[in-house]
Amino acid sequence: IMEEGSMGWHCRRLNESDFVLVICSQGLLQNQNHQSEDEEPLENTASAIVSTIGEELCRAKALGRDLSKYMVATFEYSQESDIPTALGLASRYTLTKDLPLLFSHLHGVALQKPGVYLQVENISESGYCILPAGAALQLAIQEATA
């Protein structure tokens, strides 16, 4: 990051990535809307990255490219208004309710086919909390809700 600068590093990583998942919350929008007066616009990395992703989404749409690289996730306590308008073209998921759908998106597997329903171990709305990382996520969500 020191060699490229923060924005250069983030832009390179965005181009190298197979998927880009932006977790949206009230904090993201507050970060975007409440820059201090002495702060340069590009010093607010989160805001600049959201704008860059939004530009990439618009460019991909205009060129007829696949938009599935870009996804937005919110938590169940979040609101639709927590998603920046720049990310309006991205696929949307609500965690933890849509965890199986997000898994399907990332791995390119259909969860349902005629007569078949794919059940992935520990990737259900309730099953993920069996794993340590899932339990930690569930606790963080409960604390944020409170």
TrEMBL record:
Gene3D superfamilies: 3.40.50.11530
Membrane topology: Single-pass type I membrane protein
Keywords for this protein: Glycoprotein, Membrane, Receptor, Signal, Transmembrane, Transmembrane helix
Entry-linked InterPro entries: IL-17_rcpt-like, SEFIR_dom
Cellular component terms (Gene Ontology): membrane
Domain SEFIR, residue spans: 1-104
Subcellular location: Membrane
Principal subcellular localisation of the protein: membrane
Top-rank taxon, per record: Eukaryota
Pfam families xref list: SEFIR
PANTHER family the record matches: INTERLEUKIN-17 RECEPTOR (PTHR15583), INTERLEUKIN-17 RECEPTOR D ISOFORM X1 (PTHR15583:SF17)
Name this polypeptide is given: SEFIR domain-containing protein
Highest classification ranks of the organism: Eukaryota, Metazoa, Chordata, Craniata, Vertebrata
